[in-house]
Structures are given as C-alpha cells and as structure tokens.
Amino acid sequence: MKTLIIGEVVEGKLSSGTLEIIAKSQELGLEFEVATVGTEESPNIGSESFKNTYLKCNETQLSLGSVANTLKTMVDEQSISLIMAPSTYVGRDLIAFLSVDFSSSQVSNVINFSIEEGNVITSNSINGGESEYNSKITSDKKFLLIRPKSFEEVQVELSNTNYETIEINSEDPEVFDIFIEEKTGPQLEDSKIVVSAGRGMVDSSNLSLVEDLASKLNAAIGGTRAIVDAGWMPYSQQVGQTGKTVKPDVYIALGISGATQHQVGMKDSKYIIAINKDEEAPIFQISDLGIVADTLSIVPKITENL
Amino acid sequence: MKIAVCAKQIPDPALDITYSEGLVSRPDEQVLDDTDRYGIEVALQLKEKFDAEVTVISMGKMGTEKGIQQALQMGPDKALVLEDDSLSGSNSLMTANVLSELSKKVEADITIFGTESTDGYSGVIPQQVSRMLGLPCISYIKAVDIADTVSLTRQTSTGSEKVQMPSNCVLSVTAGGVEPRYPNFKDIMAAKSKPVEKISLSDIEFSAVQNIEFIDIKDVSTTKQGEKIVDEGEGFQVIIDKLKELKAI
Ligand SMILES: Cc1cc2nc3c(=O)[nH]c(=O)nc-3n(C[C@H](O)[C@H](O)[C@H](O)COP(=O)(O)OP(=O)(O)OC[C@H]3O[C@@H](n4cnc5c(N)ncnc54)[C@H](O)[C@@H]3O)c2cc1C
User: Fold this and answer.
1) What is the CATH number of the domain that holds A199?
2) Which residues pair with B59 in a beta bridge?
3) Do the bridges between strand B23-24 and strand B19-20 make them parallel or antiparallel, or are there none, so unpaired?
4) Are A75 and A102 in contact (CB under 8 A)?
C-alpha cells in the first residue's frame, strides 16, 4: 500500500513520533516515503533507507494550509492511499486539512494498525485510554493520526543529505513574538525517571520540593493538566491525553489523583510509584508501589536521604 | 462582527462513558462540554470589545437542551442547532461539514471552538471546518490580547507564537488560556428567552460520508495489584530502597 508519512523536525532531526511511524511502516513492509515539515536550515532528516522530502516553511508564517496543498499534490501524483502523521499540533492540522481535500475522515488517537486484505484496520484509544476502538477504513484514502509512543522508534543514521527540499512560500497569516521554551535538564520524552506533580502539591511554591527531588534523581519533571491550567507549569510538561505520553523506567506521581486522562499518558511506565494522602485515589490502582502520605512531608525526606 | 461559537452537549463527564454498537450512549439530559467554555469566553470578550453578535452552534442529540442553555447562560445572543438521527455516529468530517454549514448560516466572520471534545477528542474539527470554509485556522490558542487589534498566542510544540487575528478565520482555544465566566442568576433566567433555532439536514449542503466501519470495542483498562503502604514515618525509606532495587539510583 503506497504510504506517505508526514514527519516533523525537532531540534534539527526527525521527531521521535516520525521515527516511530517509520518503524511500524517498515515492519508492515509498506511502500512508504516521508514528507517532513519544519523551519530549520538543512536538518538531519535524510536516510539511505527511505525517500524524504523536506517541506521548509518560513518561521514567521502560519503556513500549514499551504503545506497541506503541497502534500495534496504529492498524494495525487503518486496515488498514495495511506497518509499518517504523529498526533502533534502540526500533524493534527495537516491531517485535518487533507482529510477535507480528499473527503475521507481521519482516525485520531491511533495506537495500532494493520493491513488486512488491502484494508486498513485501526485501533484507537477512547474513553481516556480505558478502551480500544477497532474499525476499518472503507474509503480509498486513509488518514491516521498516530499517538506518540505507540511504537518503538526505528534506529537509523540521519544526515543532512539524501533529501530534496521544497520551500513553502505563502501569503499565510504572519507570526510574531516566537517564544521557545528553554529546555533544561532531562526531557520528559526520553528520561529514565519522571517525577510528576499534581494538585496534591498544594501550592505552586511547593514545586521546588519536586525540583529538588528530580534533580537528585536526574529525572524529568511532569505535571497534570490541573496544575498546568493553574499556571504552575508550562504546557510542555503536561502528561496525559492532551499532553505528552511518557514511558520511563520509573514514574513517580506526587499528589496526583490518577484521572483516566492522566493515566493514558503514563500508565505504560515500567514501574509506577504514587504518593497520595487519599487511600482511595485511583492512581493506586495502577501503581506498583503506593504510599499513603502527605506529599509535603514525605517528598523532602526522600530528597534528603537519597 | 458576527461570531459562531461551537458548543457540544456531552454525557455528564463525572459518569463513565458507555457505548452501544460503537456509539457513545447519550442520555436525554446532556451537559455543556467544559472544553467549549473557553471558546465561548473568547467569543464573549470579542463581543464586548467589537459589539459582535454571538451565536452558539451545535449538532447532535438535543434532548433537554441543558448544555445549550448552559452555553447561552454565559452570554451568547442565540443558538442555531441541528439534530438528525442519521448523524448519530458521525465521523469527524461529517461533524465538521454540519458545523461549517451552521457557521455559514449565521454568516460568521469568526468561528470559535475548543480544541477537542471531552467525549470524542478527535482534535481536528476546527481545522476541518476552516478548510471547508476556506479560511485560515488559528489553532491551539492559549492567550488572547484584545485591543484595537486582537493578538492571539498559539501553543506550539516548542513554546508559543503570536498571530494577529485575521478578520475572517477559525479559532481553536485550549483549556486554561482564558478564565470562563460563571453565569449569575440573572444570566440563567435571561438565557431561557434567548432564541434557539432548529434546522434539519435538508436545510444545509451536506455531502460528507461515513468511511469508518465499526468492528468492536475492547476494554484495555489495567489495574495492578501493587503494594500499598500507609506511611508511618518510614515511607520515604521504602521508596529509596525500591529505587535502589530498580537500579534507578
Ligand atoms: C478532555 C480532557 C483532557 C484532559 N487531559 C488531561 C491531560 O492530558 N493530563 C492530565 O493530567 N489531566 C487531563 N485532564 C484532566 C483530568 O481529568 C484531571 O482533572 C486531572 O488530571 C487532575 O489533576 P490532579 O491529579 O493534579 O488533581 P486532582 O484530581 O485534584 O487530584 C489531587 C490529588 O492530590 C491529593 N492530595 C491533595 N493534597 C495532598 C497532600 N497534601 N498530600 C498528598 N496528596 C494530596 C488528593 O487526594 C488528590 O488525589 C483532562 C480532562 C479532560 C476533560
């Protein structure tokens, strides 16, 4: 099945979400090529093992509508039937635009898919990850938004050669005041330990306790939507259905109730430790080690004794 | 300025979602999806500044219309809704088709959404509507600065960026970007007399088709029989020992 993977550049290389879809496509033996969207100069996205086209956008324009026009032409000219993107901000916009152009609805939140007798069968996560919805796509064009961390990343050498670049020039709305959040310390996506905070840290000033613990453990810091919405932490640190999916070796949940929308982003962690003062908190149902305790008194004790 | 703002009625989110034949079971009484309150708040702030007319648009099973009332209580002027049995189980594109037609019916300059519904969360409807309407989509708005012009801050994967609001466009607003207002008693009473116009599928141009065939739903909820300890002072040591055992430290 002719396949197009819509990829993204993150920090000068193909994003992990893109590499995960490539891995799955190789495993299924799909005839695929990649079209990668980004704004950086000559990123490392080329490989000898697959064709990649770099759709280079102007950083100061909101040009995804124009990117979609270019992708539409590729899909038409090469009779591509399966089009996939990681479920990110960019991926969601592009798949949405293309699904309109080809009058074929997408399947969102896909966590697995297979090809059976020429049909694409998808499993997508519903109900905050508590159930899997299986369906078959009956249209010629099939659009999938793949949840990050659904597959293992492919291991490939990437270089800044082996791809063609198409400059996207457009009259799209202008973007200004671009703000890049500073990334310091271990990152959520690839850290072996993640320490996450919830409303049970009681006050934003207590996040320093979380930072101290994380720094001792060399862990990345995450949080629930409740505290992100409250402005305690930037959105880039939100774990869950509408945030990041993490699979560290150890996930430490501090004062997190364990709503399904949070669980969906962390329950596949190898070992889950939860601290909550409520014995009945749902987080304990998915933890390997649960401690019924007050975060404010136990967290500093752990840090001190490490 | 005319604004259409989307409001979805969903089953009470405090209860577990149930499905029958692959469809979300929808009781007669459904509530306003909290996600939509952020979009409505932005619409109302624009209304206050530019004297805009704000219409709530919605599709789906209307039932007691509680959710529509909750939307109107916040302050929009009226509602335009569409219910049709043949739309139950609509895919995203069918939904987007209906909502873009409702936006056209109210001659909206600006159409505003939350980023994804609580029960379906496909997360693409605003973008699909913008493409159908041929308008720019400013997605994932996390802050709004309304002066003589409107500057919108978008969430991006690396941080944020600002965009000037075009005079015709589609917006999607993330949770937390604005503080949705609470209606008072007067607002609640006033909403009861606001017009709620109902139209049917034959009143709009509808061409989207179903292309997703339901197979089954599998329960994948996990529970672990983990250890649970009530801390009596040694809890911190249990955690440290475990981290050592796991070779995490
Ligand atoms: C469409 C949608 C998408 C969502 N997406 C996400 C998402 O991506 N990520 C996400 O996290 N949420 C998401 N949510 C929100 C989710 O439903 C929960 O509201 C949220 O996860 C709760 O965060 P919390 O655990 O910090 O807060 P709460 O639910 O308020 O829990 C706080 C916990 O702290 C405990 N506690 C309080 N004080 C102490 C103390 N001193 N010591 C120890 N424990 C204490 C309490 O017992 C409680 O269990 C989403 C919701 C919707 C509707």
Assistant:
1) 3.40.50.1220
2) B82
3) antiparallel
4) yes
Query: pLDDT tens for residues B121-149?
Result: 999 999 999 999 999 999 999 999 999 99
| Cβ contact, residue pair A173, B138, below 8 Å | yes
Considering only residues 20 to 59 of chain A, which have any Cβ-Cβ distance to chain B shorter than 8 Å? none
> Per the domain annotation, does A183 fall within a domain?
no
Residue A173 is given by DSSP the state P
Q: Whose CA is nearest to atom 36 of ligand 1?
A: A200
Q: Count CB atoms within 10 A of the CB of residue A121.
A: 16
| CATH code reported for the domain at B2-203 | 3.40.50.620
pLDDT tens-place string over residues B181-214: 999 999 999 999 999 999 999 999 999 999 999 9
Q: Which residue, by CA, sits nearest to atom 42 of ligand 1?
A: A294
Residue A218 CB neighbour total at 10 angstroms: 13
Nearest to A273 among B128, B160, B239 (CB): B239
| DSSP code of residue A212 | H
* Residue B159 to residue A127, Cβ atoms within 8 A: no
Looking at the complex, does the CB of residue A237 fall below 8 Å from at least one CB of chain B?
Answer: no
The ipTM estimated for the assembled molecules is 0.95
d(CA A127, CA A42): 41
The pTM score is 0.93
CA–CA gap between residue A145 and residue B122 (Å, rounded): 9
Torsion of CA B5, B6, B11, B12, to 10 degrees: -30
Residue A185 lies in a domain: no
Is there a contact between A264 and A245 (Cβ–Cβ < 8 Å)?
Answer: yes
Bridge partner list, A121: A114, A136
Assess if residue A227 is contained within a domain: yes
